[in-house]
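User: I'll paste a sequence; please echo it back and then give the predicted structure.

Assistant: Echoing your sequence first, then the prediction.
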Amino acid sequence: MCDTTFCELWQEVYTWAVENGYTLTSAKKGYATNDAYKSFVPAMNFSWNMAYVWLNAYSEYKGLEPVYYRGNTVWRDDSSTSDTFKWDRTKNGFRLPTECEWEYAAGGGNLAETRTIYSGSNNIDDVAWYNDNSGKEAHPVGTKKPNQLGIYDMSGNAREWCYDYKADYGTGELTNPVHSVYYGSGYKVIRGGGIVWRYHGVNESIYHRDDQDEFYKMSTAGIRIAQNAAQ
């Protein structure tokens, strides 16, 4: 798993995609007053559908196999949702993390001796841009401390779409569960809080779960890229 997608990478792939048969809605550079930060700012204003089609484009751009399909066809049009969605887990391309993958990485994975409230610290200001310190602006990735895995901004800055529908995990022991179908709200999971969320840092906790309709372009939502480990 890597850091939040920069606007420069998003634009590079978007340009390639529309020139190579993709129909893809435009995201935006994370907002800052007078465009104060010129580089490494997260791309935001993503819907879940946009994220999936962009990730397929990024996979093809890098010579990898796209992982998301509509019916039996690679999903290349984020306005097309008529056929059944499918994630082909045998493919080697880029994808969104599952909710459990996201939380495991945010908590420092196997390098974390103890779990912290936020990704890398119990002090939110060490690791996160959020309502109280962001000025409600997106900030360049990597300007706060990373977590134990060396990953930045899993608390705060851009909110991050995950693969799963939001659902109750119950009380029993589970190993990497994935919610691929509707269970409750029918909304997709978003994690990490963000630059405008209040509640004294509650939303930026690595344990806090939000959700939103998959078609909704959330102005503060971005994506974090995942990929299957090489076999």
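Residues 92 and 228 are 6 Å apart (CA to CA). The first helix runs from residue 7 to 18.
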